[in-house]
Write a structure and sequence with these properties.
Blueprint (H helix, E strand, L loop, with lengths): L12 H16 L4 H24 L12 E3 L5 E3 H14 L18 E2 L1 H9 L1 E3 L6 E3 H11 L4 E3 L10 E3 L3 H7 L7 H29 L9 E7 L6 E4 L3 E3 L2 E9 L14 E7 L7 E6 L14 E6 L8 E2 L7 H7 L3 E3 L1
Antiparallel strand pairs: 1-2, 1-3, 4-5, 6-7, 8-9, 8-16, 9-11, 10-11, 11-12, 12-15, 13-14
Helix pairs in contact: 3-8
């Protein structure tokens, strides 16, 4: 038994028991007040983000909008794709578009953008789909496409035929050991020939367009495709007014999912158009044309050239409107007219 040094009070047995009880009580109480406060704040932040997600979500798809946010006159929110889809469906059905919540009428004139909601949503956190780290939505795309070490990327020697795909963090190690840079010129001849053929095909369209612009007789017309209806239910078509070109009268017609009975039942929609000669030529009339976005057009078009030899009151074969983004179909249908040149 050790002897207590002089000057140090010897705690009594009652004091020992009290200190042990107090220690046990503190252990039973859980984390310290500071830690407990931090845990509560984190829970509150997560709950706040969850509540905001439920409040700011689109009334149609129930997801947080990625870009533009529209609202009806009563303030109900819709993301841009759903908003355009509602307007396009109403146009196809010959009905008035309404808000899915309150059934008030919606249109591009009666509805407005909600910039406050757009900025708020852009600040909400979201996990990276590659590394599961959390970032504000406005910076997430840049992280996923350019920064994230777990994003899927290709080899820098893909132009030499390397088909490796993997995480960005492993790209440097792969490229250091990649065998494609050491291939002989003879091995690369076929690959270079394929690339040359693809480049030639891409350049051909632009060359044809430039040749078309150098023709002796050329004309430009700014046209509006206005919506009309057939007697058949749900059949919407578009038609321009008559216009003059090369001393003849023409019209352009367009159809939505021409070979489908009810386009409202499909989420994938396509607009096809036909150039129609309305006058009587003395001989077959060979015409080449290209469609581009008009001064008030809302969708970009891919460069495409078409040609046909017209006879009396003849329509050219139907062609798909060459939209760069298929989602722009609903955007065009949501408007009152389609503008092109």
């Amino acid at each position: 038994m050790a002897e207590a040094p002089e000057g140090d009070p010897v705690p009594s047995s009652s004091e020992n028991s009290e200190s042990i009880i107090e220690s046990n009580v503190n252990d039973d109480e859980g984390p310290s007040p500071k830690k407990r406060k931090t845990v509560i704040e984190n829970d509150q932040i997560e709950k706040l983000e969850h509540r905001l997600g439920g409040i700011l979500c689109c009334a149609v798809c129930l997801d947080l909008p990625q870009a533009a946010v529209y609202q009806c006159s009563n303030g109900h929110l819709m993301c841009a794709p759903c908003f355009n889809h509602l307007l396009a469906d109403a146009r196809l059905r010959d009905e008035t578009a309404t808000c899915p919540n309150c059934r008030v009428e919606i249109s591009k004139l009666l509805s407005s953008r909600n910039l406050a909601v757009e900025k708020t949503v852009s600040e909400l956190p979201l996990e990276c789909k590659h590394c599961t780290r959390v970032f504000p939505r406005h910076s997430l795309q840049n992280h996923e496409e350019k920064i994230c070490e777990e994003r899927v990327t290709g080899c820098r020697y893909a132009c030499l035929g390397c088909g490796w795909r993997g995480a960005a963090r492993a790209a440097a190690a792969h490229e250091a050991a990649c065998a494609h840079p050491r291939r002989s010129a003879a091995d690369l001849l076929e690959l270079l020939a394929q690339r040359e053929r693809r480049a030639r095909d891409d350049a051909l369209v632009h060359a044809q367009l430039l040749d078309l612009l150098s023709c002796e007789k050329i004309t430009f017309n700014d046209l509006q495709l206005k919506p009309y209806r057939t007697e058949e239910l749900h059949k919407l078509y578009y038609e321009t007014s008559r216009f003059s070109a090369f001393s003849h009268q023409w019209v352009v017609k367009a159809f939505v999912n021409k070979n489908q009975r009810d386009p409202t039942q499909s989420s994938q929609r396509e607009i096809t158009y036909q150039l129609i000669l309305k006058s009587k030529p003395a001989a077959p009339l060979a015409v080449s044309w290209a469609c581009v976005r008009g001064p008030f057009g809302e969708a970009r078009l891919a460069p495409a050239l078409a040609a046909h030899a017209f006879r009396e009151d003849e329509a050219a074969p139907a062609r798909a409107l060459p939209l760069l983004d298929p989602a722009d179909t609903n955007r065009l249908l949501a408007g009152r007219a389609i503008h092109f040149r």
